[in-house]
Design a protein that fits this description.
By secondary structure, the chain is α+β, with helices and mostly antiparallel strands. It contains ten helices and five strands, in the order ααααααααβαββαββ. α2 runs antiparallel to α3 and α3 packs parallel to α5.
Length: 390
């Protein structure tokens, strides 16, 4: 759960105030020493006041340490030459520089800091106390350097984690977008398979009414009823496809029950055969499947759509010709579907030519199978092989 705005504001306020809190202890310590010296020697009062004033100026300069880290670090360390209370702000600027700028600049300022510290110590003369103070100051700044480099490393790790999180978020958004595009393509393919089959049946039935003058009134009524049934079935199947592919499918308006999408399998092929035969398509089926009950439902669904599209293509490109559909396969060997029809010269391809084969190829590929099509002995042959397992 992401932090609230109040939590973020509080953490930002703490992050901004902590450097000043870190700079205050050395200022308070050296300020106390200056007060003690001034009480003992009133002549030192002016020097003490100027020292504290420069320390406060250095503390105020810390507000610019993020925009001008190198400049603020150099200025504050130079101020330590004449102000002991500036040591605290200079140390904070020193650490801030290490966190925000290249190491070569940091080490250059580190060398300047050591030189300023040494110069300040030797101005009173070189004694044993000077060496001890120099060693102590060097150890202090070495420790401060270690802290600065640790904070720098932690910042870099946090930055890399944020970058990785952003990259993962972008990748997740891309995956979601790809899934949406794939779903849209799937919807388009399903709509093509369903509607092309139904519309081609309607076209065949309507053509029979338009050109056949020998139909009796009963036959005309039967054909009209078939047209009506197929039109109604087209709408039903279209709504069913949309209901299948939309994860957020909801009940229809006006209190209607939600559409329960059909899941056609090989068991529904007989109904498909009856529909196309009733519409006038000549169909011959050779079914040599073994243990068809063991065929996974998803594989059966793909097989149904493949046969449906193959019969639709045959009605488009070889109307009135006899279509042969062959099935073979068994568990462990896969499912083979072979649909063929005569090639009629001069038959117009019609709108959407070859789009059905493109869609079939994509469906077969997604199912893990293979598809080929060719003209053999003046017949167009569609050969599909699907893995038995889903």
């Amino acid at each position: 759960m992401p932090p609230s705005a109040e939590t973020l504001a509080r953490s930002e306020w703490i992050r901004r105030i902590v450097p000043y809190l870190c700079a205050l202890p050395p200022m308070v310590f050296f300020g106390g020493v200056l007060v003690w010296v001034a009480l003992r020697d009133p002549a030192f009062l002016w020097n003490g006041l100027s020292d504290v004033a420069l320390g406060l100026v250095a503390l105020g300069l810390l507000a610019l340490r993020r925009r001008l880290p190198v400049l603020i670090a150099v200025v504050t360390v130079l101020m330590t030459l004449v102000s002991t209370t500036a040591t605290g702000p200079a140390a904070v600027a020193y650490v801030s520089l290490a966190r925000r700028r290249p190491l070569r600049r940091f080490f250059a300022v580190a060398a300047l800091t050591w030189v300023c510290m040494a110069s300040q110590l030797v101005t009173t003369g070189i004694t044993q106390q000077t060496y001890i103070s120099l060693l102590a100051g060097t150890a202090f700044y070495l420790g401060l350097t270690g802290v600065a480099l640790y904070l720098r490393g932690r910042d870099e790790v946090a930055a890399s984690q944020r970058a990785a999180a952003l990259a993962a978020e972008r990748e997740q958004r891309q995956r979601i977008e790809q899934a949406r595009l794939a779903e849209r393509a799937k919807i388009a393919q399903e709509m093509h398979d369903v509607l092309a089959h139904r519309i081609s049946l309607l076209s065949m039935l309507a053509g029979g009414l338009a050109y056949r003058t020998d139909l009796s009134p009963e036959e005309m009524r039967a054909t009209a009823q078939l047209i009506q049934e197929n039109a109604h079935q087209s709408l039903t199947e279209l709504r069913a496809v949309l209901g299948t592919l939309r994860a957020d499918a909801a009940p229809e308006r006006d209190g209607d029950a939600a559409v329960t999408p059909p899941q056609p399998t090989l068991a529904d092929l007989e109904k498909l055969y009856d529909e196309v035969r009733a519409a006038g398509q000549k169909l011959e089926v050779h079914d040599r499947l073994s243990d068809r009950e063991a065929l996974p439902t998803q594989t059966g669904r793909h097989a149904y759509r493949i046969v449906q599209e193959a019969l639709t293509n045959a009605r488009k490109h070889a109307p009135g010709s006899r279509v042969t559909a062959e099935f073979d396969g068994r568990p462990g060997e896969g499912l083979r579907i072979r649909v063929s029809n005569p090639v009629l010269p001069g038959t117009p391809a019609g709108p959407g030519a070859r789009l059905g084969l493109v869609g079939l190829s994509e469906r077969v590929r997604m199912a893990g199978g293979t598809m080929s099509h060719a003209i053999e002995d003046d017949r167009f042959v569609l050969d599909v092989r699907l893995p038995w397992e889903a």
